[in-house]
Amino acid sequence: MSKPYRMIECLQQYQAEQLDTTILENGIGMSSWYNQHALVDVDSPDHHTLSLYTKDGYQSFLKTPHGWRNGGRPDRLCLMPKDYSSVWDIRGAISFVHFYFTDQHLSDVAESVWDKSPYGLSIDERIFADDPQITTLYRQFLLNLSWHDSADRLALSSATTLLLTHLVRHYTNFKWHPLPVTGGLAPFQLARVKGYIDANLSANIQLSDLAAVANLSEYHFARMFKQSAGLTPHQYVMQQRLLLAKTLLKKTDLSLVTIALQCGFSSSGHFSNRFKLASGCTPSQYRQNYITR
């Protein structure tokens, strides 16, 4: 979107604390929020909002024709279609993450997965609902990755594609079954994609970039790549970034900041955390161990 998502402006108006926010390359927005003791009037935003409670929320009430409805708690979700107006009485602390998307995002996913253009696609309203698959996507990916480090943007892109696909399948009037994905990439496709990855490890590699190299939709590429490589695109790219980092640590005296940037990490801190998680030691320890052998 060329303008900010309306829900963000609305919550800021009611003094909600925005903890983090980002707009992904495909225009999808995400924001992390904290609020307490507020009466919030949401007035017909022109986009859809998926909200997941991450902490507290037990005293979150929605105004209905029959009175105030309560049902919030961690991992409960609210799916609010565009033009949905609501009034919320927040009587205690609540932490939540919003996922903002449009009709165009839903249509793009439907065309990518089902190879058909949907007509009259509409999304359902859900309040205080449970969905273990959405909770897993949020907590394992959207909440467990850096929203601003280029090394994690591929994983975020993949997770949002999975999330939108799930929403289209289970929360819209679109009822076609996805086309089956059989087999992996052709050898020339796999080689081309791997070559592209190795040549662009310092860049912000997106799932859409890799899918375009293979001339496939993001949905089908991700599944076919995993069948061929044994790893998801994000896992493979991270593996190659860390392999390059190890080579640079052993064979050069470049600073950790420089190595981080050359391997696609936007900060040495994030690079060190990822390296230690994968290798069991920090980059500095790895270099020192190699030197003293």
From TrEMBL:
<dbReference type="GO" id="GO:0043565">
    <property type="term" value="F:sequence-specific DNA binding"/>
</dbReference>
<keyword id="KW-0238">DNA-binding</keyword>
<dbReference type="InterPro" id="IPR050204">
    <property type="entry name" value="AraC_XylS_family_regulators"/>
</dbReference>
<dbReference type="GO" id="GO:0003700">
    <property type="term" value="F:DNA-binding transcription factor activity"/>
</dbReference>
<feature type="domain" description="HTH araC/xylS-type">
    <location>
        <begin position="191"/>
        <end position="289"/>
    </location>
</feature>
<dbReference type="InterPro" id="IPR009057">
    <property type="entry name" value="Homeodomain-like_sf"/>
</dbReference>
<keyword id="KW-0805">Transcription regulation</keyword>
<dbReference type="Pfam" id="PF12833">
    <property type="entry name" value="HTH_18"/>
</dbReference>
<protein>
    <submittedName>
        <fullName>AraC family transcriptional regulator</fullName>
    </submittedName>
</protein>
<dbReference type="InterPro" id="IPR020449">
    <property type="entry name" value="Tscrpt_reg_AraC-type_HTH"/>
</dbReference>
<keyword id="KW-0804">Transcription</keyword>
<dbReference type="InterPro" id="IPR018060">
    <property type="entry name" value="HTH_AraC"/>
</dbReference>
<dbReference type="InterPro" id="IPR018062">
    <property type="entry name" value="HTH_AraC-typ_CS"/>
</dbReference>
